[in-house]
Amino acid sequence: MSARKAAIIGGGVIGGGWAARFLLNGWDVALADPAPNALAAVKATIARAATAYVALYDAPLPERGTLTHTSLAEAVTDAAWIQESLPERLSLKHGIYAEIAEHTDLPVASSTSGFMPSELGAGAFVAHPYNPVYLLPVVELVFPETIPQPARDRMAEVLTGIGMSPLTLRREIPAHIGDRLLEALWREALWLVRDGIATTEEIDRVITHGFGLRWAQMGLFETYRIAGGEAGMAHFLAQFGPCLQEPWTKLTEVPELNDDLIATIATQSDAQSGHFSIAELEAQRDRNLVAILRHLRSENWAAGTTIR
């Protein structure tokens, strides 16, 4: 086994982000993806990540690892980490896991947004990141009972070593932590657009000009603790808790994503951001995240504590 080789299975947005995270932290990366443009796409992600890292880190970066585009068998052989980032189809994942098992008994880490280890099977575990993987440090870990604690600790150490902030769930649950929260917000946003209450731009403005600024540095509960004043969280809950009984939201209902709603969202999104290319939006996003992370580092606060 190579102590510093990561096999990246799937070179899409998330897989490319994993490749960049490992490679720029000194690991060799073996990419397995049959798509003809997979290597070019991953190289573009690595270039974007390298630009961000130069701005983010004051300390010298480790010597960059080597990137190879190879078969699944060659990628996983002698790998110290296997990260699967395939589409959310269990049959596809199960097939790949079976192939991997022919060449190694190393547990596979899955980037799955919603599946649990009991559904993944084959001893696979969840290592769910957030996009862009090379900048956002948190990664949700969900282990099956078959992986003992010492092995779990070693896996968390690997992720910490590449600048991530692993968070292990106490037990499995569909969509883990972050995506459950995001889905609740997403459902309500869809209702607001469907019912003609707000456009995509107006909803995003409420987030980017309002509570989104708070969440980047204090999260949900710490923000609400401040809202409770010197009396703290107990006072906040006593004051605002009864509001939860009001029918303000539709979080238990899902609007039908019919052609009309899809067209409305797409049209509004085009009006909001269509004058930018995706590459331009990604570059702007990265510059903003770097600036936020650097300030948080100067305060030794939140995600800034992960920046060396």
UniProtKB/TrEMBL annotation:
This is CDH. The lineage of its organism: Bacteria, Pseudomonadati, Pseudomonadota, Alphaproteobacteria, Rhodobacterales. GO terms for molecular function: NAD+ binding; oxidoreductase activity, acting on the CH-OH group of donors, NAD or NADP as acceptor. Residues 177-242 form the 3-hydroxyacyl-CoA dehydrogenase C-terminal domain. It comes from the Bacteria. InterPro entries: 3-OHacyl-CoA_DH_NAD-bd, 3HC_DH_C, 6-PGluconate_DH-like_C_sf, 6PGD_dom2, NAD(P)-bd_dom_sf. Gene3D superfamilies: N-(1-d-carboxylethyl)-l-norvaline Dehydrogenase, domain 2, NAD(P)-binding Rossmann-like Domain. SUPFAM superfamilies: 6-phosphogluconate dehydrogenase C-terminal domain-like, NAD(P)-binding Rossmann-fold domains. Residues 5-169 form the 3-hydroxyacyl-CoA dehydrogenase NAD binding domain. GO terms for biological process: fatty acid metabolic process. Keywords: Oxidoreductase.
